[in-house]
Fold each of these.
Amino acid sequence: MRRLLVVLGLLVSISGAAAQEFEIPTLRGTDSFVPDAPGPLYRPRWSGFYIGGQVGYGVAGADFVGSTSDLVAHMLRNSELQAEQFPSTWTVLGRSQTGSSSWGGFLGYNIGWECLILGVELNYNRTHFSAGSPEFPIERVVSVGSNNDDVTLIGSGSMNITDYGTVRMRAGYEVGNFLPFGFVGLAYGRANIARSATAVVVQTPASGNAPPVTVTFSESDNKNGAFIWGWALGGGVEVMVAPKVFMRAEYEFAAFQPVFNIKSQIQTGRLALGYKF
C-alpha cells in the first residue's frame, strides 16, 4: 500500500510538470492577436487659408423709375408748375435687365469644429453689366395760375457696372469630400452712371390774345467709377478633388444702395477652382 501511494505521488508530480511545460497561454488584453488594421481613411481638411479663381454669368437689374425726380424738382424749383402739379413725381423711365459674364478670384480662411466649418472670404469679379433705361416721355396739359401749360417731360439713364465683389461670412458642413455652405456679407463695386431730364413747357394764357411762350429746362448728372455698396447672400457646394485642390459651384445675390436714385442688383452663378494651403 505504501509503495502504491509513492507511485501515485510520482505520477501526479510528473503529470503536473508536463502540463506546465505544454500549457497554452490564455488570450487576454494586449496579448490577444489583432490582424493588421488598415491605415486611417483620408478626410479632407478645410481649415486654413485658401485661394482660387472663378468664372460666372449673371443678370443685373437696374431700376431707373425714380432717377429723374430730384432733377425735375430742382430745375422747376420755385415755380407754380412744380408747386401745383408736381411734375417731379411723373415717371418717365423704367426698369431694365442685362446679362454679362464675369471672372475673378477669392481669398479666404476657414476654421473647423469637427464637421462644422466657419470662415471669412474676400471675393472679387470683373464684369460688364451695361443697362440703359427704357424711356416713357409724358405730355400733359395742366392749369397753372391763369395759364394752360403744355408740359412735356423726357428722361434718360444708364448704368454700367464694371466690377464688384463681396466680403463674406461663411458657414458649411463637411460631408465626406463635400462641403455645402451658405454665406452673407457686404457687397461693393464700381459703376459708370448717367442720367438726364428735360422739361419743355409751352405756356398759353387762358384768356387774351398773347402768344404761347415756350420754356425749356434741362439737367443731367454723370459719374464714372462711382462706388456702390450693399449686401449679399448665397450658397453653394465645394468638393475636394485632391488633397489640397477643390472645386466650387455657387449662387450669389447682391443688392446695392441707390446712386442718383438708381437701384441695382445682381444675380450670379459661378464655377471656381481653389487651392488650400
Amino acid sequence: MADHLSRPDAGASERFELAGVDVLVDGAGPDAIVMIHGWPDTHRLWDAQVAHFRTRHRCVRFTLPGFDLAKPRRAASLDELVALFRAIVDRVSPDRPVTLMLHDWGCVFGCEFAARHPGRVARVVSVDVGDHNSPEFRRSLGAGALLGVVGYQVWNSIAWFLGGAIGDGMMRSMARRRGCPTDPRAIGAQMGYPYAMRWFGVAGGLRTIAPVSPPRHPLLYVYGTRRKTKWHSPEWLGVLDRSPGCAHQGFDTSHWVMIDAPDAFNACVARWLEPEARDG
C-alpha cells in the first residue's frame, strides 16, 4: 500500500494515502470518529460534523474507492473495502477502538467492517439505513416501495455499466430525482458500483454480508422522517429500545439528515457520544 503522512501539530489537519485513497484527519483527542459516506457523496458530506466534533475528537474521513471522479474508475469488493477500513482504523487509532459514523452505503459497508472486526469498533452512529438486510425490513416494504427500490437501484447499476457521458447523465438525473444535495459536478456513473454489486454480483457481490440486527455495538440510529420509503423496519426501532447503549432519533429531514439539519444532528450525536459534556 502507498503510505504518505504529514504530522502537524495537535488539532491541525493531516492527510495520508492508503491503497490510492486520500484520508483526512482533523482535530485532536484520544478518540477517533471514522466517517463513511454513501451514494452519491464524497468525504465532503461530513464537513459540518468535522467542524463540530474536531474540538473533542479526531475526525477521520475519506472518499470511498471509485467515488472520486478525479481518480480512475474502479469497483472495490466487500473484502477490499473492509481491508481498507481496517488499515485506516489501525493507522489512526492503533490502541483504541473507534466510533463509526455512517450514512447510506457507508452503513452497509461500515457495519460489515464492525461485524468482521468487532474489537476495532467502540460504537456506531448509523444515519438513515438501519436493518437493511433483516427479514423484518423486507416484510416492511410494500409492493410499490419494493418496485421503487428495485427501479432506482437497477437504474444506477446500468449507469455504472454504461459509464461515460450517458452513465454520468443517468446518475445525476437519479440523484436529482431523489433530492440529493450533492453538487451534480461531483456525481458520476462510477459511483454506482455498490448497486451493481447488489443486483449483478459485481466485484463478488454482497451475498456474504453479515446481518445487522441485532446490533453488535452500542448504536445510535438517526433517520429522516420525510422519506416515503424508510430504510428500517418498525421492529428495528424496538430492537434498539431493548439493546443496552442503543438509541434512535428521527428528524424532519430528507435522507441527508446531517446536511438538512446539521446543528440538530450534531447536538443529538454529541449527547450520545459525550454524556460527560452534557452532564457538565
Amino acid sequence: MRTALTATFALAAAIAAAPAAHADSPEPVPPRARKLAERGRELHQRGDYARAVTAFKEAYVLAPSPGLLFNIAQSYRLQGSCDDAATMYRRFLAAGPSRDARAIAEGHLATVVRCVQKRTLNLPPDAELASIPVPPAPGPDPLFVDAPAPSPSGSGKVLRGVGLGATLGGAVALGAAAYFGVRAHNASAEVERLYSEGASWKTILPAHQRGERAETAAMWLGIGGGVVAATGVTCILLGRRAEHPSPVTVAPARGGAQVAMSWAF
C-alpha cells in the first residue's frame, strides 16, 4: 500500500529550474531548498509524514513553489491531518496548476473534505483516505519531478482479458491435439498388429482410416492451438504494457532538467 501511495508523490517543479537563457528567468533554486525538498521526499517515501511536512515547509520558505504545496498536502493527507491537507490542496489549486494536476488535487481535496465532515459528526473516516481515487495525468506534468503513476487503462484490461482467453483456448486445442496424436499412434499400432496376423485389407481398413483422421486432427489442432496460444501471450504482454506505461522521470539538472524513460514487461 505504501508503495502505491508514494507513486502520487511529487517534488516541486521549481526545483527543475528553467534554462537561464531568458532575461526574466527566475532566480536559481538555493541548494539548501533543493536539499530540503529531496529530504522531504525521502521521509515521505519512508512514511515519516510529519517530518516530511517540516522539510517541505522549510524548502517552500526558501523557494516557494506550487509543487511543494502539493507535497505538503500529500503528507498531511497520508498522516491523517485532514484539515491541514484541505488547506494546502486549496492553496495549490489557487496557484493555477495544469488541468491534469488540478484533477488530481481536486480528487484528493474531496477525500479530505469528506474526512473533515465525518470527524465533525464523530463518524469513522473513509478507508479511502490514503488511497488514490483520482484520474491520472497522461504524462509528466511540469509541476512534478516524479509524475503521478497512471492507473490501468481500459484498453490494457481488454487486451489482457482477450489474451487470457486466447491462451486458455490455445492450451485446450493443444491438449486435444495430444489426445488425437495418441489415438493416431494407437491406430497405427493396431494396423501393424493386423498386418502381422495376416488380416485382410478389409479388416485393416477401418483402423487405418481412424489413424488418418486422428493424425489430421492432431496436426490442425496443434497448429491452430499453437498460433492461438502465442497470440494470447502477445495480447497479455501488450495489455500489461498498456496498463503500466513507461515511467517518465524528470530530474533537476544545471540549466534545466533531465528526462528519463524506461520500459518493463
Amino acid sequence: MTRLFLRRILVHSRPGSPTQGLLIAGSTVFRCALGRSGIGRAKREGDGLTPVGVYPALGAFWRADRLPRPRAGLPLSPIKPDQGWCEVPADRNYNRAVKLPYPASTESMRRDDHLYDIVLDLAWNRRPIRKGKGSAIFLHLARPGYSPTQGCIALTRGDLMKLLPRIGPRTLFEVRR
C-alpha cells in the first residue's frame, strides 16, 4: 500500500501576531509558534527569526525515554543522551548534530523541558552551510500559550502527532510572511 504524504505545508504568521502563526497542511490548519523576531529573510545566528523559504524535513527525532515511537513518514531516530547541536559559526561542525560533551557551544537535544520530545530537522542552512546564517531550525513542540521560539516552528504535541505520519521525504515546508 502506498502512503500519501503531503507535498507542501505552508507556514505564515497570524495577522497582528508576528510570533504566532498558522501551519496549513492540506485542508487542516494548525496554530503554531514562530520565532521571537517573527518571519523574515535576513536570518543570522541567534536573531530569533524564522527564515522565509522552502525546506524539506531531513528526518525526525523523538525522546524514546518519554514517548512510544510515533508513527512517522520520515526516518525517525531516538535522541541519544549525548546528542547535541553545534551553534558556533566558526566551528567545523556548525549547524550539525554532535556528540556531547563538545568543546564548542551546543544545544542539548535531550532537553529537560518537553520541546524536543518530537523534533523534525528542517533543512535550513544546510547545502551548503553558511557560517553565521543560523542553525537548528526545527519543527518541535510548543510551550504553553505558543510563546515564541528561537526561530523554529512549534506545534502542540497532539497536533504534531497528527501531522507527523503525513510528512514524507518529499514534503516541503514553505515559510512566508
